[in-house]
């Protein structure tokens, strides 16, 4: 059974950084495409970043140059390093694989 557990969210000031973690069980993250998504209040969920089984990454235009997706095969975990955060990055961030979703972690960017 695939389980994804996110952590690392919180409150941060504009310009700050956070690193989100998505710990996977039931699958090996290196074998599957993994992705991070976010949903802000009143908005649809959107893809933020993805990493393929071969390690190829892709990003939403709004986060290119600021966010980095990576994976640690030993820890079976996918990360989202978020730098230079902006108030518009405020959302619930969730990771996904094989059409499964984690519970999400709240990120709030505010002064």
Written account of the structure:
0% of the residues lie in helices and 51% in strands. The chain is mainly beta and 111 residues long. Strands 2, 4, 5, 6, 9, 10 and 11 form a seven-stranded mixed β-sheet that branches. Strands 1-3-8-7 form a four-stranded antiparallel β-sheet, with no helix packed on it. Strand 7 and strand 8 form a beta hairpin. It is globular, with a radius of gyration of 13 Å. 30% of the residues are buried. The mean pLDDT is 97.
Summarize the structure.
With 111 residues, this protein is an all-beta fold. It has no helices and 11 strands.
Shape: globular
Span between termini: 40 Å
Order of helices and strands: EEEEEEEEEEE
Estimated structural class: mainly beta
Rounded mean pLDDT score: 97
Radius of gyration: 13 Å
Q: Helix proportion of residues, in percent?
A: under 10%
Low-confidence stretches: none
Please describe the biggest sheet, giving its number of strands, its sense, and whether it closes into a barrel: 7 strands, mixed
Count the beta strands: 11
- Classify the beta-strand content into a percent band: over 45%
Question: Count of helices?
Answer: 0
